[in-house]
Amino acid sequence: MLLRDGRPFPAAYLARELEELPAGANPVELVPGQQEGPGGLIFEVQPRACGSWVGCARPGAMTARGAVSGLMPTPNQDDLCVLVRGTAYVVDVTDHSYQPVAASGPVVTAVSVVAAGVLLLATPWGVIGIGPDGVAWRTGRLAIDGLRLDEVDESRLIGVADPESAEPREFVIDLRSGGHEGGAAFEP
Q1: Are 169 and 125 in contact (CB under 8 A)?
Q2: Would you kindly state where each structural domain of the chain is located, as residue ranges?
Q3: pTM of the model as a whole
């Protein structure tokens, strides 16, 4: 699920998904750095500062029901978050460089929180905060069997770990630091 808190982050580019690779295009390949899965997401970026280019993002081998795909601006106006079947990349659109976002599982929810200056990427077990300089923080494991994000404001995210279990547990994440309270208890 791709969500926003009412508005997207400002971006110094336009980006769109493409159905197929344009004739003669030499795409920038985004690969996860581990075993990749089949298929991919083709996209075009038109930065204001330089010429347009085409990219092809490959998914990782991990998948989950509800894994998301799409393009989302980040708190950095020159960065684009590319999501392909749960695999996330942060791409600098001016020089085509990218970083795969290491996650404990596939991204199943992405939420822009402009008021807090963070893009949230949730896996079935934890949450990653993308700030102006890339990955700002990541929580420890919050859930055993999935999580649900319920409320977000400029300073915190409230959600439920294992919402379908007999004992769901609320958690609260500080959006500045990624520190959290609650969620499922895990033995160290």
Answers
A1: no
A2: 2-8+62-182
A3: 0.91
Whole-angstrom distance, CA of residue 179 vs CA of residue 144: 18
Residue 98: strand, helix, or coil: strand
In this structure, the dihedral spanned by the alpha carbons of residues 27, 81, 34 and 176, taken in order and rounded to 10 degrees, is 160
The pLDDT score that the predictor gives to residue 2 is 47
Tokens of 117: 């200056």
Which amino acid is present at 94?
Answer: T
As a whole number of angstroms, the longest Cα–Cα distance in the chain is: 55
Which one of 3.40.50.300, 2.130.10.10, 2.20.25.90, 3.10.310.30 gives the CATH number of domain 2-8+62-182?
Answer: 2.130.10.10
User: How many CB atoms neighbour CB 22 within 10 A?
Assistant: 10
Q: Judge contact between 142 and 185, C-beta under 8 A.
A: no
At residue 5, the pLDDT reads 52
What is the distance between the terminal CA atoms of the chain, rounded to a whole angstrom?
31
Residue 1 has pLDDT above 60, yes or no: no
Tell me the chain's radius of gyration from C-alpha atoms.
Answer: 17
d(C-alpha 88, C-alpha 121), whole Å: 8
Is residue 69 within 8 A of residue 83, CB to CB? The reply is yes
Model confidence pLDDT, tens digit, residues 70-94 = 999 999 999 999 999 999 999 999 9
For residue 174, give every residue at least 6 positions away whose Cβ sits within 8 Å of its Cβ, in sequence order, or none: 155, 156, 180
